Protein backbone atom coordinates (compact mmCIF):
# COMPACT_ATOMS: atom_id res chain seq x y z
CA UNK A 1 0.00 0.00 0.00
CA UNK A 2 1.44 3.38 -1.00
CA UNK A 3 1.85 6.25 1.43
CA UNK A 4 -0.95 8.21 -0.27
CA UNK A 5 -3.30 5.23 -0.16
CA UNK A 6 -2.52 4.70 3.52
CA UNK A 7 -3.18 8.36 4.22
CA UNK A 8 -6.56 8.25 2.47
CA UNK A 9 -7.50 5.07 4.35
CA UNK A 10 -6.48 6.65 7.65
CA UNK A 11 -8.84 9.54 7.00
CA UNK A 12 -11.78 7.18 7.33
CA UNK A 13 -10.59 5.94 10.73
CA UNK A 14 -12.38 7.17 13.85
CA UNK A 15 -11.14 10.56 14.96
CA UNK A 16 -9.61 11.00 18.42
CA UNK A 17 -11.68 12.68 21.10
CA UNK A 18 -11.28 16.42 21.52
CA UNK A 19 -8.95 15.98 24.49
CA UNK A 20 -6.78 13.44 22.70
CA UNK A 21 -6.69 15.63 19.59
CA UNK A 22 -5.48 18.57 21.66
CA UNK A 23 -2.99 16.30 23.41
CA UNK A 24 -1.46 15.15 20.11
CA UNK A 25 -1.23 18.69 18.74
CA UNK A 26 0.27 19.92 22.03
CA UNK A 27 2.85 17.11 21.88
CA UNK A 28 3.78 18.21 18.35
CA UNK A 29 4.23 21.78 19.56
CA UNK A 30 6.19 20.63 22.60
CA UNK A 31 8.73 18.59 20.62
CA UNK A 32 9.76 21.51 18.46
CA UNK A 33 9.81 24.12 21.20
CA UNK A 34 11.51 21.86 23.76
CA UNK A 35 14.36 21.20 21.35
CA UNK A 36 15.12 24.91 21.04
CA UNK A 37 16.28 25.62 24.58
CA UNK A 38 16.81 22.33 26.42
CA UNK A 39 20.52 22.41 25.53
CA UNK A 40 21.17 25.77 27.21
CA UNK A 41 22.57 24.17 30.43
CA UNK A 42 24.87 22.01 28.28
CA UNK A 43 26.75 24.88 26.64
CA UNK A 44 29.59 24.64 29.16
CA UNK A 45 30.08 20.86 28.94
CA UNK A 46 29.83 20.96 25.13
CA UNK A 47 32.46 23.72 24.99
CA UNK A 48 34.75 21.60 27.17
CA UNK A 49 34.21 18.37 25.21
CA UNK A 50 34.97 20.01 21.87
CA UNK A 51 37.69 22.34 23.26
CA UNK A 52 35.91 25.47 22.06
CA UNK A 53 37.81 28.71 22.71
CA UNK A 54 34.71 30.29 24.28
CA UNK A 55 31.36 29.15 25.64
CA UNK A 56 29.82 31.85 23.43
CA UNK A 57 30.60 29.68 20.40
CA UNK A 58 28.22 27.08 21.81
CA UNK A 59 25.41 29.58 21.13
CA UNK A 60 25.69 28.54 17.48
CA UNK A 61 23.80 25.41 18.54
CA UNK A 62 20.68 27.56 18.80
CA UNK A 63 21.43 29.70 15.75
CA UNK A 64 21.79 26.84 13.28
CA UNK A 65 18.72 25.10 14.73
CA UNK A 66 16.59 28.23 14.20
CA UNK A 67 17.92 28.67 10.65
CA UNK A 68 16.86 25.15 9.74
CA UNK A 69 13.57 25.55 11.63
CA UNK A 70 12.66 28.83 9.92
CA UNK A 71 13.63 28.00 6.34
CA UNK A 72 12.02 24.55 6.17
CA UNK A 73 8.69 25.92 7.31
CA UNK A 74 8.21 27.18 3.75
CA UNK A 75 8.27 23.62 2.37
CA UNK A 76 6.24 21.36 4.66
CA UNK A 77 2.95 23.18 4.18
CA UNK A 78 2.81 23.04 0.36
CA UNK A 79 3.97 19.41 0.46
CA UNK A 80 1.20 18.53 2.93
CA UNK A 81 -1.39 20.17 0.67
CA UNK A 82 -0.37 17.63 -2.00
CA UNK A 83 0.34 14.34 -0.19
CA UNK A 84 -1.54 14.94 3.08
CA UNK A 85 -0.69 15.89 6.66
CA UNK A 86 0.18 12.41 7.98
CA UNK A 87 2.97 11.42 5.56
CA UNK A 88 4.40 14.94 5.64
CA UNK A 89 4.70 14.90 9.42
CA UNK A 90 6.31 11.47 9.30
CA UNK A 91 8.92 12.81 6.87
CA UNK A 92 9.68 15.66 9.27
CA UNK A 93 9.94 13.36 12.27
CA UNK A 94 12.35 11.04 10.41
CA UNK A 95 14.52 14.04 9.50
CA UNK A 96 14.48 15.16 13.15
CA UNK A 97 15.41 11.64 14.33
CA UNK A 98 18.32 11.43 11.87
CA UNK A 99 19.67 14.77 13.11
CA UNK A 100 19.31 13.60 16.71
CA UNK A 101 21.23 10.34 16.13
CA UNK A 102 24.03 12.22 14.35
CA UNK A 103 24.20 14.69 17.27
CA UNK A 104 24.56 11.86 19.81
CA UNK A 105 27.63 10.49 18.02
CA UNK A 106 29.01 13.76 16.60
CA UNK A 107 32.83 13.49 16.50
CA UNK A 108 33.33 17.24 16.15
CA UNK A 109 31.56 20.48 16.93
CA UNK A 110 31.05 21.12 13.21
CA UNK A 111 29.18 17.82 12.84
CA UNK A 112 27.13 18.70 15.92
CA UNK A 113 26.11 22.00 14.31
CA UNK A 114 25.11 20.20 11.11
CA UNK A 115 23.07 17.75 13.18
CA UNK A 116 21.32 20.61 14.97
CA UNK A 117 20.45 22.25 11.65
CA UNK A 118 18.96 18.94 10.48
CA UNK A 119 17.00 18.71 13.72
CA UNK A 120 15.57 22.18 13.12
CA UNK A 121 14.65 21.23 9.57
CA UNK A 122 12.70 18.24 10.88
CA UNK A 123 11.10 20.09 13.80
CA UNK A 124 9.67 22.67 11.39
CA UNK A 125 7.14 20.03 10.34
CA UNK A 126 5.65 19.91 13.85
CA UNK A 127 5.10 23.69 13.88
CA UNK A 128 3.54 23.86 10.42
CA UNK A 129 1.46 20.69 10.50
CA UNK A 130 0.03 21.37 13.96
CA UNK A 131 -1.49 24.66 12.77
CA UNK A 132 -2.65 23.17 9.45
CA UNK A 133 -4.31 20.19 11.14
CA UNK A 134 -6.13 22.43 13.62
CA UNK A 135 -7.33 24.58 10.69
CA UNK A 136 -8.51 21.43 8.89
CA UNK A 137 -10.66 20.43 11.85
CA UNK A 138 -11.83 23.80 13.23
CA UNK A 139 -12.45 27.39 12.26
CA UNK A 140 -13.44 30.66 13.85
CA UNK A 141 -13.72 30.86 17.62
CA UNK A 142 -13.45 27.09 18.06
CA UNK A 143 -10.11 27.13 16.28
CA UNK A 144 -9.00 30.00 18.51
CA UNK A 145 -9.93 27.91 21.54
CA UNK A 146 -7.79 24.98 20.38
CA UNK A 147 -4.94 27.27 19.33
CA UNK A 148 -4.96 28.91 22.77
CA UNK A 149 -4.26 25.57 24.40
CA UNK A 150 -1.62 24.45 21.91
CA UNK A 151 0.02 27.88 21.70
CA UNK A 152 0.30 27.77 25.49
CA UNK A 153 2.53 24.73 25.06
CA UNK A 154 4.59 26.41 22.33
CA UNK A 155 5.13 29.49 24.50
CA UNK A 156 5.72 27.90 27.90
CA UNK A 157 7.84 24.88 26.96
CA UNK A 158 10.92 26.88 25.83
CA UNK A 159 10.84 28.66 29.18
CA UNK A 160 11.00 25.44 31.20
CA UNK A 161 13.20 23.58 28.70
CA UNK A 162 16.50 24.67 30.31
CA UNK A 163 15.41 23.14 33.61
CA UNK A 164 14.57 19.88 31.83
CA UNK A 165 17.98 19.86 30.17
CA UNK A 166 19.64 20.55 33.51
CA UNK A 167 17.76 17.63 35.04
CA UNK A 168 19.22 15.20 32.51
CA UNK A 169 22.70 16.58 33.13
CA UNK A 170 22.37 15.41 36.73
CA UNK A 171 22.37 11.82 35.50
CA UNK A 172 24.84 11.90 32.63
CA UNK A 173 26.50 13.90 29.88
CA UNK A 174 24.84 16.29 27.44
CA UNK A 175 24.38 13.33 25.07
CA UNK A 176 21.55 12.19 27.35
CA UNK A 177 19.55 15.29 26.37
CA UNK A 178 19.66 14.18 22.74
CA UNK A 179 18.66 10.65 23.77
CA UNK A 180 15.59 12.12 25.47
CA UNK A 181 14.72 13.93 22.22
CA UNK A 182 14.96 10.64 20.33
CA UNK A 183 12.57 9.00 22.79
CA UNK A 184 10.11 11.89 22.44
CA UNK A 185 10.12 11.84 18.62
CA UNK A 186 9.50 8.06 18.65
CA UNK A 187 6.58 8.46 21.06
CA UNK A 188 5.04 11.22 18.94
CA UNK A 189 5.42 9.26 15.71
CA UNK A 190 3.69 6.20 17.16
CA UNK A 191 0.87 8.15 18.82
CA UNK A 192 0.21 10.33 15.78
CA UNK A 193 0.26 7.51 13.23
CA UNK A 194 -2.00 5.26 15.29
CA UNK A 195 -4.57 7.84 16.40
CA UNK A 196 -4.64 10.88 14.08
CA UNK A 197 -6.54 10.37 10.82
CA UNK A 198 -5.73 12.32 7.67
CA UNK A 199 -7.35 15.76 8.08
CA UNK A 200 -6.71 17.25 4.64
CA UNK A 201 -10.11 17.62 2.97
CA UNK A 202 -10.22 15.62 -0.31
CA UNK A 203 -11.51 18.64 -2.24
CA UNK A 204 -8.45 20.62 -1.16
CA UNK A 205 -5.90 18.00 -2.29
CA UNK A 206 -4.25 19.19 -5.51
CA UNK A 207 -1.43 17.92 -7.73
CA UNK A 208 1.90 19.61 -7.13
CA UNK A 209 2.97 22.48 -9.34
CA UNK A 210 5.25 25.42 -8.70
CA UNK A 211 2.63 27.70 -10.19
CA UNK A 212 0.01 26.52 -7.71
CA UNK A 213 2.37 26.88 -4.74
CA UNK A 214 3.41 30.31 -5.93
CA UNK A 215 -0.22 31.34 -6.32
CA UNK A 216 -0.96 30.14 -2.79
CA UNK A 217 1.94 32.11 -1.36
CA UNK A 218 0.88 35.19 -3.29
CA UNK A 219 -2.61 34.80 -1.90
CA UNK A 220 -1.20 34.68 1.65
CA UNK A 221 0.58 38.02 1.29
CA UNK A 222 -2.24 39.70 -0.65
CA UNK A 223 -5.00 38.78 1.85
CA UNK A 224 -5.27 41.82 4.12
CA UNK A 225 -6.39 39.94 7.24
CA UNK A 226 -3.71 37.27 6.83
CA UNK A 227 -0.85 39.69 6.20
CA UNK A 228 -1.95 42.08 8.95
CA UNK A 229 -2.41 39.56 11.72
CA UNK A 230 0.70 37.61 10.67
CA UNK A 231 2.68 40.83 11.00
CA UNK A 232 1.11 41.40 14.41
CA UNK A 233 2.14 37.86 15.38
CA UNK A 234 5.71 38.50 14.20
CA UNK A 235 5.94 41.63 16.35
CA UNK A 236 4.57 39.89 19.43
CA UNK A 237 6.81 36.86 18.86
CA UNK A 238 9.72 39.31 18.76
CA UNK A 239 8.86 40.37 22.31
CA UNK A 240 9.05 36.73 23.45
CA UNK A 241 12.40 36.22 21.74
CA UNK A 242 13.71 39.45 23.25
CA UNK A 243 12.56 38.32 26.67
CA UNK A 244 14.20 34.89 26.34
CA UNK A 245 17.44 36.48 25.17
CA UNK A 246 17.57 39.20 27.84
CA UNK A 247 16.15 37.41 30.88
CA UNK A 248 19.34 35.59 31.98
CA UNK A 249 21.32 38.84 32.11
CA UNK A 250 18.46 40.80 33.69
CA UNK A 251 17.40 38.30 36.36
CA UNK A 252 20.27 35.88 36.85
CA UNK A 253 23.44 37.95 36.59
CA UNK A 254 23.88 41.64 35.84
CA UNK A 255 20.76 43.53 36.97
CA UNK A 256 19.18 41.58 39.84
CA UNK A 257 21.77 38.84 40.45
CA UNK A 258 19.23 36.19 41.43
CA UNK A 259 21.58 33.32 40.62
CA UNK A 260 19.93 30.03 41.47
CA UNK A 261 16.59 31.79 42.05
CA UNK A 262 16.41 32.79 38.38
CA UNK A 263 14.42 29.67 37.30
CA UNK A 264 11.79 30.48 39.96
CA UNK A 265 11.08 33.95 38.57
CA UNK A 266 11.24 32.60 35.05
CA UNK A 267 8.77 29.88 35.97
CA UNK A 268 6.28 32.25 37.65
CA UNK A 269 6.13 34.45 34.56
CA UNK A 270 5.76 31.36 32.34
CA UNK A 271 2.90 30.18 34.54
CA UNK A 272 1.12 33.52 34.08
CA UNK A 273 1.47 33.15 30.32
CA UNK A 274 -0.04 29.70 30.57
CA UNK A 275 -2.91 31.03 32.68
CA UNK A 276 -3.60 33.71 30.06
CA UNK A 277 -3.76 31.11 27.29
CA UNK A 278 -6.15 29.03 29.40
CA UNK A 279 -8.33 32.10 30.07
CA UNK A 280 -8.39 32.85 26.37
CA UNK A 281 -9.53 29.31 25.57
CA UNK A 282 -12.45 29.77 27.98
CA UNK A 283 -13.52 33.25 26.89
CA UNK A 284 -12.91 33.26 23.15
CA UNK A 285 -16.13 31.48 22.19
CA UNK A 286 -18.16 34.01 24.17
CA UNK A 287 -16.30 37.24 23.48
CA UNK A 288 -14.67 36.53 20.14
CA UNK A 289 -11.11 36.58 18.84
CA UNK A 290 -11.05 40.24 17.89
CA UNK A 291 -12.27 41.59 21.19
CA UNK A 292 -9.81 39.53 23.21
CA UNK A 293 -6.80 40.09 20.97
CA UNK A 294 -7.48 43.81 20.57
CA UNK A 295 -7.76 44.19 24.33
CA UNK A 296 -4.54 42.21 24.62
CA UNK A 297 -2.48 44.29 22.20
CA UNK A 298 -3.81 47.61 23.54
CA UNK A 299 -3.20 46.53 27.13
CA UNK A 300 0.30 45.44 26.12
CA UNK A 301 1.11 49.09 25.32
CA UNK A 302 -0.14 50.22 28.74
CA UNK A 303 2.05 47.77 30.65
CA UNK A 304 5.04 48.37 28.34
CA UNK A 305 4.72 52.12 28.89
CA UNK A 306 4.61 51.51 32.64
CA UNK A 307 7.76 49.39 32.31
CA UNK A 308 9.53 52.26 30.52
CA UNK A 309 8.44 54.75 33.18
CA UNK A 310 9.66 52.64 36.11
CA UNK A 311 12.91 51.94 34.24
CA UNK A 312 13.53 55.66 33.73
CA UNK A 313 12.55 56.62 37.28
CA UNK A 314 14.97 54.10 38.78
CA UNK A 315 17.76 54.69 36.23
CA UNK A 316 17.28 51.37 34.49
CA UNK A 317 17.24 49.20 37.61
CA UNK A 318 13.79 49.37 39.23
CA UNK A 319 12.89 47.23 42.26
CA UNK A 320 12.53 43.58 41.24
CA UNK A 321 8.88 43.30 42.26
CA UNK A 322 7.86 46.47 40.40
CA UNK A 323 9.65 45.42 37.21
CA UNK A 324 8.36 41.85 37.44
CA UNK A 325 4.76 43.09 37.75
CA UNK A 326 4.94 45.21 34.60
CA UNK A 327 6.73 42.44 32.70
CA UNK A 328 4.22 39.81 33.87
CA UNK A 329 1.38 42.07 32.71
CA UNK A 330 2.93 42.29 29.24
CA UNK A 331 3.46 38.54 29.05
CA UNK A 332 -0.09 37.83 30.23
CA UNK A 333 -1.54 40.08 27.52
CA UNK A 334 0.86 38.59 24.97
CA UNK A 335 -0.80 35.22 25.57
CA UNK A 336 -4.25 36.72 25.03
CA UNK A 337 -3.10 38.08 21.68
CA UNK A 338 -0.93 35.50 19.93
CA UNK A 339 -3.31 32.53 19.49
CA UNK A 340 -6.12 34.78 18.28
CA UNK A 341 -3.86 36.59 15.81
CA UNK A 342 -2.74 33.20 14.53
CA UNK A 343 -6.30 31.99 14.10
CA UNK A 344 -7.45 35.14 12.30
CA UNK A 345 -4.42 35.04 9.99
CA UNK A 346 -5.31 31.45 8.99
CA UNK A 347 -9.07 32.02 8.86
CA UNK A 348 -9.49 33.01 5.17
CA UNK A 349 -7.16 30.28 3.85
CA UNK A 350 -8.69 26.98 4.93
CA UNK A 351 -8.43 25.52 1.41
CA UNK A 352 -4.63 26.05 1.41
CA UNK A 353 -4.05 25.62 5.14
CA UNK A 354 -0.70 23.88 4.68
CA UNK A 355 0.76 26.54 2.41
CA UNK A 356 -0.69 29.30 4.57
CA UNK A 357 0.75 27.78 7.73
CA UNK A 358 4.16 27.58 6.05
CA UNK A 359 4.19 31.18 4.89
CA UNK A 360 2.87 32.54 8.18
CA UNK A 361 5.19 30.35 10.26
CA UNK A 362 8.34 31.23 8.34
CA UNK A 363 7.48 34.94 8.25
CA UNK A 364 6.67 35.23 11.95
CA UNK A 365 9.68 33.13 13.01
CA UNK A 366 12.23 35.06 10.95
CA UNK A 367 10.89 38.53 11.76
CA UNK A 368 10.31 37.67 15.41
CA UNK A 369 13.80 36.24 15.79
CA UNK A 370 15.31 39.38 14.23
CA UNK A 371 13.33 41.67 16.54
CA UNK A 372 14.26 39.53 19.54
CA UNK A 373 17.93 39.68 18.57
CA UNK A 374 17.79 43.48 18.31
CA UNK A 375 16.28 43.71 21.79
CA UNK A 376 18.65 41.27 23.47
CA UNK A 377 21.73 42.65 21.72
CA UNK A 378 20.80 46.14 22.96
CA UNK A 379 21.17 45.07 26.59
CA UNK A 380 23.29 47.67 28.43
CA UNK A 381 23.18 46.49 32.02
CA UNK A 382 19.67 47.87 32.61
CA UNK A 383 16.08 46.86 31.80
CA UNK A 384 15.52 49.98 29.68
CA UNK A 385 16.33 48.46 26.24
CA UNK A 386 13.84 45.65 26.74
CA UNK A 387 11.20 48.07 28.07
CA UNK A 388 11.62 50.38 25.07
CA UNK A 389 11.54 47.40 22.73
CA UNK A 390 8.29 46.18 24.27
CA UNK A 391 6.70 49.62 23.94
CA UNK A 392 7.74 49.87 20.28
CA UNK A 393 6.33 46.39 19.63
CA UNK A 394 3.04 47.31 21.31
CA UNK A 395 2.68 50.51 19.29
CA UNK A 396 3.52 48.64 16.10
CA UNK A 397 1.03 45.90 16.99
CA UNK A 398 -1.82 48.36 17.47
CA UNK A 399 -0.91 50.20 14.27
CA UNK A 400 -0.92 46.96 12.26
CA UNK A 401 -4.22 45.89 13.84
CA UNK A 402 -5.80 49.22 12.93
CA UNK A 403 -4.60 48.83 9.35
CA UNK A 404 -5.88 45.25 9.19
CA UNK A 405 -9.32 46.16 10.52
CA UNK A 406 -9.51 49.45 8.57
CA UNK A 407 -9.57 51.50 11.76
CA UNK A 408 -12.15 49.40 13.60
CA UNK A 409 -11.22 47.67 16.83
CA UNK A 410 -13.14 45.32 19.17
CA UNK A 411 -15.78 44.46 16.55
CA UNK A 412 -16.49 40.73 16.19
CA UNK A 413 -16.86 39.26 12.71
CA UNK A 414 -19.00 36.34 11.58
CA UNK A 415 -17.00 33.12 11.10
CA UNK A 416 -16.11 32.31 7.50
CA UNK A 417 -18.43 29.87 5.71
CA UNK A 418 -15.73 27.73 4.05
CA UNK A 419 -17.02 24.47 2.59
CA UNK A 420 -16.36 21.20 4.32
CA UNK A 421 -16.68 22.67 7.83
From TrEMBL:
This is Bcr/CflA family efflux transporter. It comes from Kaistia hirudinis. PROSITE patterns: MFS. Pfam families: MFS_1. InterPro entries: Efflux_drug-R_Bcr/CmlA (IPR004812), MFS (IPR011701), MFS_dom (IPR020846), MFS_trans_sf (IPR036259). Keywords: Cell inner membrane, Cell membrane, Membrane, Transmembrane, Transmembrane helix, Transport. It is a multi-pass membrane protein. Its main location: membrane. Residues 18-408 form the Major facilitator superfamily (MFS) profile domain.
Amino acid sequence: MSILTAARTARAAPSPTFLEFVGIIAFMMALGSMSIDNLLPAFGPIAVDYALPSVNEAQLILTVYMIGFATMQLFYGPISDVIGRRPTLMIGLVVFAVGTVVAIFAPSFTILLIARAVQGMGAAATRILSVAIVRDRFHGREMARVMSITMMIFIVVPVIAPSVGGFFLLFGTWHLIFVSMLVLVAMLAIWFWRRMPETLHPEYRKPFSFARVGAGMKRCVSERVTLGYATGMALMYGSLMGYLGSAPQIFETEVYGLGSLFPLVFGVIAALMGVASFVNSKLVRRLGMRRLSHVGVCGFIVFAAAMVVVALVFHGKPPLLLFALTLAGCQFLFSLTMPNFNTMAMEPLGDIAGTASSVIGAYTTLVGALIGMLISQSFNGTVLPMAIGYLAIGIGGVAVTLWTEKGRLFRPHNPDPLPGR
